[in-house]
Design a protein that fits this description.
- By secondary structure, this protein is of the alpha/beta class.
- It folds into 2 domains: 165 residues, dinb family like domain (Four Helix Bundle (Hemerythrin (Met), subunit A), Up-down Bundle), CATH 1.20.120; 118 residues, Nonspecific Lipid-transfer Protein, Chain A, CATH 3.30.1050.10.
Length: 297
């Protein structure tokens, strides 16, 4: 693994401060909604959103990741679409109580990892959906998924996603993008900027770094918007081209994003893919070569 490893270098105490409150907020949201209500994700109710985030006897994603890290990160990335289909079908008729219990089990598994597993595992490579990442970065990646799916639940009557959870999701997004840039040998970076501050990642031959940035006009390459809009654009919930046209999203020094666009070719399902495609479409008209966001709900 490279010498600099982004948020894994920040340590598990810092990651715990980001990911565990994200779990607590999502649990509160899930408890507030009718799980049978259809969501904006085609074919998924709130029930399916929550089921695939849970820990079940036949689906324990974190335990699989820990095993992967213990075995040196060998293997190939999982088929996330196939896994989601299998798990949601298997538990389609699970009771509300069972679904909420599965969510709590996953939160507890995360807390247990952060409290009990050897610290050396944090920077060990694990095979995640987008490739080999430090295990602690994959754990932090839960914050991105919880923030985005929390936004999915808001139209169904859930309380808003707390601002710190949105920021945690952006930290995870910056981390995985920096990791993939480093893996591709790309030297570059960008800031994910919001009115409340944001996160900047930078990658080079030595790895990648991720640091928080204060509120204010960002320097250098940046994507700037409200935190919820950044996450929705990164996950494909909102079309970044339309958001850019309406000036709800701004891009500074878009050429820096274009340098990062090849990441999408090697990992088409990455978080942030639509924003990187926006750069390619805007500057080079090559968006069609980059594929589309897929493999992630």
């Amino acid at each position: 693994m490279p010498r600099a490893q982004g948020m894994a270098d920040a340590g598990r105490d810092r990651v715990a401060e980001l990911v565990l409150p994200a779990w607590d907020a999502f649990l509160d949201q899930a408890a507030a909604v009718d799980l049978d209500r259809p969501s904006r994700l085609p074919g998924w109710r709130a029930h399916e959103i929550c089921v695939h985030l849970g820990c079940w006897p036949d689906h324990a994603a974190l335990a699989d990741l820990v095993d992967s890290a213990r075995n040196g990160g060998a293997g190939t990335p999982p088929d996330v679409d196939g896994t989601n289909a299998r798990v949601t079908a298997a538990h389609r008729d699970a009771s509300r109580e069972d679904v909420l219990a599965a969510l709590r089990r996953n939160r507890e598994a995360t807390a247990r990892y952060l409290a009990e597993e050897p610290v050396a595992l944090d920077t060990a490579p694990a095979v995640a959906v987008v490739g080999r990442l430090p295990l602690l970065s994959v754990v932090l990646g839960q914050a991105y998924e919880l923030a985005v799916h929390g936004l999915d639940l808001v139209p169904l009557g859930a309380p808003p996603v707390p601002a710190p959870v949105l920021q945690a999701g952006l930290a995870a997004l910056a981390d995985v993008t920096g990791a993939l840039a480093a893996a591709e040998g790309i030297t570059g970076g960008a800031t994910l900027a919001t009115p409340d501050g944001g996160w900047r990642f930078a990658a080079d031959g030595d790895g990648w770094t991720v640091v928080p940035v204060p509120a204010g006009r960002p320097a250098g390459t940046a994507v700037e918007a409200a935190a919820d809009l950044l996450l929705e654009a990164a996950s494909g919930r909102v079309n970044p081209v339309a958001a850019l046209a309406r000036r709800r999203l701004r891009v500074h020094e878009i050429g820096g994003l274009l340098a990062l666009a090849p990441i999408v070719q090697s990992a088409p399902g990455i978080p942030g893919g639509p924003i990187l495609q926006l750069a390619a479409q805007t500057l080079g008209g090559v968006g069609g070569l980059l594929g589309r966001l897929r493999g992630r709900r």
